[in-house]
Amino acid sequence: MTRGAVKIDHRKYLAIPYRQADCWELIRRVFADCGQRLPSFAVAAADAAAIAAQVDAARPAWRRLAAPEAPCVVAICNDDQDPARVNHFGVYLGDGTVLHTLEASGPCVWRLSHRWWAPRIEGYYVPAE
Predict the structure, then answer these.
(1) Over the stretch 12-21, which tens digit does the pLDDT of each residue have?
(2) What is the number of other CB atoms lying within 10 angstroms of the CB of residue 32?
């Protein structure tokens, strides 16, 4: 896959209910549609500590990017109890936009410059190959 040259039509993902695809499963679907398989993680989406532990354990399998490229995983610190803990993910679509999903809202797209999400972005990652 040529990263950065991929065009992702996010509209088909907006109809997927959260109960069918939490944030990581949604990313897995986008990457699969781009021809790349990502690992599955068996962690409850509400268990921030378990998610953070799996993120830390899986770090050697990922390469951090200096800037986002479509598609890449956007690691997000969305834990008010521990603001530095990565516990949520989105996928960078290109053109400054991110697709993610939350139980309360379902899938949505926001800009990297969004005042709520921008300061919570920990980094951009792709599988180490």
Answers:
(1) 999 999 989 8
(2) 11
